[in-house]
Amino acid sequence: MGGGADGHKEAPELRTASKIGLASVSAAVAESSTFPIDVIKTRLQLRGESPRPTSLPRPIFGSSFSVAAEIWRKGGVLGFYSGLPPALFRHLFYSPLRIVGYEYLRGAAAFDGSLFGKALAGGVSGAIAQILASPADLIKVRMQADGRLLNTSSQPRYAGVFDALRKIVQKEGFRGLWTGVVPNAQRAFLVNMGELTCYDQAKHFIIHKGLCDDNTYAHTLASVASGLCSTFLSCPPDVVKTRLMNQASGREEALYRNSFDCLYKTVKHEGLSALWKGFFPTWARLGPWQFVFWVSYEKLRQISGLSSF
Fold first, then answer.
1. For the whole model, what pTM was predicted?
2. How far is residue 41 CA from its own chain's centroid?
3. Angle at 226 between CA 106 and CA 207, to 5 degrees
4. pLDDT in tens, 263-279
5. How far is CA 38 from CA 82, 206, 233, 283, 286, in A?
6. 214-244: per-residue pLDDT in tens?
7. Between 192 and which of 19, 31, 122, 309 could a Cys-Cys bridge form, CB atoms 3.0 to 4.6 Å apart?
8. If you compute the radius of gyration of the chain from its CA atoms, what whole number of angstroms results?
9. How far is the CA of 109 from the CAs of 105, 113, 117, in angstroms?
10. d(CA 25, CA 31)
């Protein structure tokens, strides 16, 4: 049976390049096919924000369907793909680093291969990957949020990826590209701790219990389990990350000083449930995303002669 244990026997110097390439391709396919749901999730998470730090806003609740209808009315089909280029660019770094990084870390002596060791390996690999990919994620969030400006007479802040990159560096400095990096890394730690560990454990449990072989059915069941786990763990820091990244750093009217200030104000003004704003579109995205990614990634590894994840 192919599995993680077999993968540890492969020579890293001969396999790493293939794994990186396959992870990038699989992530690009998964990202493109589920990106409209991510746009809806981002808009939901930004609803109800205070216009000023001292104000007490009335929460604005809207269903995923109403947000989707609004996006369609104002931007058509293209409105659902606002921010896709930087999202794809992000996955050129993020997905290979976290996937391949986890695979090697889980077999390292320091992580001992236990459930706790795998969880730590997933969190560490995810956080490092997200820190490196944070600028692309920032641009993605800003461009997705710009879609809301279509509801007013205001013009979007950015004309494209490179325009966003230039303006952010010009107005906020090079460090501005890492706005929200702390909650971003916190979210990535939790997401990957839940996703990678749960997928790994669930798949091997299914196979070892004889429910099915190491095939598409096992990969599908494992991806469903990891999707639920990672969504529950990641939603609160994801809300904080989205709100911090949407505000320009260093401006006087900034709503939040840091991630803890954002967390406090969000709960105070909108209630604890606000931390799970966008839960269902997040789950609706992570579920299909992981299904597409893991099934395609496992299949590509098999075709390429690599053992399963």
1. 0.73
2. 11
3. 70
4. 999 899 888 988 888 78
5. 10, 30, 17, 10, 9
6. 999 999 999 989 888 888 888 888 888 888 8
7. 122
8. 20
9. 8, 8, 9
10. 10
